[in-house]
Write a structure and sequence with these properties.
CATH topology of the largest domain: D-Maltodextrin-Binding Protein, domain 2
Number of domains: 2
Helix content: 40-55%
Number of strands: 10
Strand content: 15-25%
Bound molecules: fe (ii) ion
Distance between the termini: 66 Å
CATH architecture of the largest domain: 3-Layer(aba) Sandwich
Radius of gyration: 21 Å
Structural class: alpha/beta
Order of helices and strands: HEHEHEHEHEEHHHEHHEEHHEHHH
């Protein structure tokens, strides 16, 4: 009898314990802060597994229906689209998500939703370059930048998504010419992460670097004074692509096909697009809110307003394979 009661207690705990299981590619402190606030507010526990997006998508496929995951979070819309194509996500209906997130920042069929926006921009050595020198991504292939551009490897999904959007706007042939032009202007073969490119600009190895906006925020607010100096020595500009706007991407989330806590999972996503959470993403991780009307942090305001590209970000996933092929042709390593 005692065993029976215990078994019953365990199974009720399993059935009724409020929790949500998140597989996340994001690695920022702001996220844990938000998950803790969500738990404090709702009593729903958030369990996190962190790994690279490719590994998480693979894991979801292997685990199938038995996967404990409810939510997949990645730092790139292209990867969310790929997760959708791989069949590991499900469409969900939420008026709050639909009303809070502009339509180009979420999947048209509601398989994933952007939670934070970031722009992939150019930072430059303030003593040698000015923002007016980089009006467009296309202008980066100008011969005047020969030996001056720093950018990370083409294996990085942020670059793949940038090139996917060049393909979407200008076509594959133009995109190939563009990628070759960037390779011809590189200060050295791609190595390191976005922050390393900025460090190389400040070290005089090149003049401009292509990076995601929040990495400049992370440098400026680094506990390491040397990194702060690096951040302070560069300016930021928001080039336009095909005359449209600056290339943006989202960190976002989809609910897994295997989810056993769908209501809790939707609640968590809705919490993450609340005004308060969106403010925290902007304040603590230097990302732009996806939700219109949420006040930016002082740092984002200091960088200035810009016109974002409004292409639906699912395009980045649709064109990811093309982008990888163009990079190979251009020998962008
Ligand atoms: Fe990142």
């Amino acid at each position: 009898m005692r065993y029976l009661i215990l078994a019953f207690a365990c199974s009720t705990h399993f059935l009724f314990a409020a929790e949500v299981n998140v597989y996340s590619h994001r690695h920022y402190e702001a996220d844990q802060m938000l998950f803790d606030q969500f738990t404090a507010k709702t009593g729903i526990k958030v369990n996190i597994v962190k790994a690279g997006a490719d590994a998480l998508i693979k894991r979801l496929k292997i685990e199938g229906d038995k996967s404990p995951a409810d939510i997949l979070i990645t730092a790139d819309a292209g990867l969310l689209h790929i997760a959708k194509e791989e069949g590991v996500l499900q469409a969900v209906k939420s008026n709050i998500l639909e009303q809070s997130i502009p339509s180009h920042l979420r999947d048209p069929e509601s398989y994933w939703f952007g939670l934070t926006t970031r722009a992939r921009v150019v930072v430059f050595a303030k003593d040698r370059v000015s923002a007016a020198d980089v009006p467009s991504y296309e202008s980066l292939t100008d011969k005047k930048w020969k030996g001056k551009i720093l950018v990370r490897s083409s294996t990085n999904v942020y670059n793949q998504s940038l090139l996917a959007s060049v393909i979407a706007h200008n076509g594959k042939a133009e995109a190939e010419i563009w990628a070759k032009g960037i390779v011809a202007n590189m200060a050295h073969a791609p190595k390191g992460n976005d922050r390393d490119q900025v460090k190389d600009v400040v070290a005089g190895i090149g003049d401009i670097a292509i990076i995601n906006t929040y990495y400049l925020g992370l440098l400026l607010n680094s506990p390491n004074p040397e990194e702060q100096k690096v951040g302070q020595a560069v300016g930021i500009c928001f080039p336009k692509l095909a005359g449209a706007g600056t290339h943006i991407n989202v960190s976002g989330a989809g609910i897994t096909k295997s989810s056993k806590n769908i209501d809790n999972a939707i609640k968590l996503l809705e919490f993450l697009v609340s005004d308060e959470s969106q403010r925290i993403f902007a304040e603590a991780n230097y990302e732009y809110p996806v939700k219109p009307g949420v006040r930016w942090s002082d740092l984002l305001n200091a960088w200035g307003d810009f016109t974002p590209d409004t292409i639906n970000l699912s395009k980045l996933g649709e064109l990811n394979r093309d982008a990888v092929r163009v990079f190979q042709t251009a020998d962008w390593r």
